[in-house]
Amino acid sequence: MASVTSQASAPDVSILIVSFNTRNVLRECVESIEREAAGLRVEISIVDNHSSDGSPEMIEQEFPHVRLLRSDTNLGFGAANNAALEGCTGRYIVLLNSDAFLCPDSLRLAVRHMDENPKAGLAGGRLVGRDFSWQPSARMFPGILSDLSVMTGLSGRFPKSKVFGYFDRTWADQSLPSEVDWVPGAFSIIRSEVLAQVGFFDPAFFLYSEEVDLCRRIQAAGYQIWYWPDISVIHIGGESSRQVKTLEMSTTGAQLVLWRMRSTLLYYRKHHGAKAWLAKTQELALYRLTELRNAFSKDPRRVARARESRNQAQLMRQAWKDTNGGRVSPPRPW
After folding, report:
1. Which residue of 24, 133, 257, 327 has the lowest C-beta tally within 10 Å?
2. Which of 228, 212, 218 is nearest to 194 (CA)?
3. Does 81 lie in the same domain as 198?
């Protein structure tokens, strides 16, 4: 297509996609880019994390102009994006999940906003489901108290509270542009010279927390993180995670619990030192309380809840051991 650049052209945007067994939605993702690339010089790079569903073959056959990198192992999200970044020459880097689809004008607006806001180092837009229901799209940095609000369900019960709804900013007017702490990696646009300055993803994070860490480093370098609600991106969520069948899944959205715990410990140790121990202890205490509360019930739902809490506590203890208290990243792939 004319809107997708050849290697000889200098692109406005380099779009990076990481895929793991997401062939059908990956096709839809690339089609959405080609619809929205009009008027922009765009290059697309896809890293396939050792898929077994024919994803790379589909890209080669249907989108031969797309740069495809095949990995012989699952690199995870951050390291795969790092690999795709090599050789990219766009003024802006766009990270797009393989299960995310650009809505009309989203790419053009993202470039325009970045052009008009030179202090913006990284930005995101409004994430919605296929039914256009709102998803958390702009967040504040995690902390012990905000973690507690989320894990106890207080954030869901009191979304308009600036205390309990702090992490997901559910108290804020989502129709207003805002400077925030970080945006999810399902869609973000990043200034290339900022990445050259701060570096890209820390490969210690296999999955989860890598975009939080990157946003912290961008802010530390003096740049801003922005949420622009006029940029809309449809995001299914959890498609790659659902392909991993060996680990227990969170009941709240196909989150690989052990991976999330490892990344949480790595993040806290890197940015908050000894608070990694506090984060672990807080989770274990909550799991224990939930188990005790439900252990003697005959209600099958409460029995299942107690069992899940025991399993989660075991996973947290394993994550603590695997990461040496958040100090080391386990060998990849996790």
Report:
1. 133
2. 218
3. yes
Q: Is residue 40 part of a domain?
A: yes
Q: Of 138, 146, 148, nearest to 179 (Cα)?
A: 138
Q: Report d(CA 230, CA 225) in Å as an integer.
A: 16
Phi-psi region of 281 (alpha: psi -120 to 50; beta: other; left: phi over 0): alpha
Q: Please give the distance of CA 110 from its chain centroid, rounded to a whole number.
A: 18
Instruction: Reply yes or no: is the peptide bond before residue 333 cis, omega within 30 of 0.
Output: yes
Query: CA–CA separation, 24 vs 59, rounded Å?
Result: 11
The distance between the two most distant Cα atoms of the chain, rounded to a whole number of Å, is: 68
Same domain, 77 and 200: yes
Q: What is the pLDDT of residues 141-160, one digit of tens each?
A: 999 999 999 999 999 999 99
> Per-residue pLDDT tens for 100-133?
999 999 999 999 999 999 999 999 999 999 999 9
Q: How far, in Å, CA of 240 to CA of 238, rounded?
A: 6
Distance CA 57, CA 182 (A): 34
The per-residue b/e assignment along 8-35, b for 16 or more CB within 10 angstroms, e otherwise, is: eeebbbbbbbbbbbbbebbbebbebbbe
Residue pair 92/42 in contact by the 8 Å Cβ criterion: no
Residues 275 and 296 in one domain: yes
Please name which of 12, 17, 189, 207 lies closest in space to residue 100, comparing C-alpha atoms: 17
Both 116 and 252 in one domain: the answer is: no
Pair of tokens at residue 255? 């989150």
Q: What is the DSSP string of 254-277?
A: S-BHHHHHHHHHHHHHHHHTTHHH
Q: Are strands 67-70 and 42-48 parallel, antiparallel or unpaired?
A: parallel
The predicted model scores a pTM of 0.89
Does 158 reside within a domain?
no
Euclidean distance between CA atoms 92 and 308, whole angstroms: 43
Residues 224 and 267 in one domain: no
Tell which phi-psi region holds residue 235, choosing left (phi > 0), alpha (psi between -120 and 50) or beta.
beta
Token readout for 126 is 């409004």
Q: Which DSSP state fits 176?
A: S
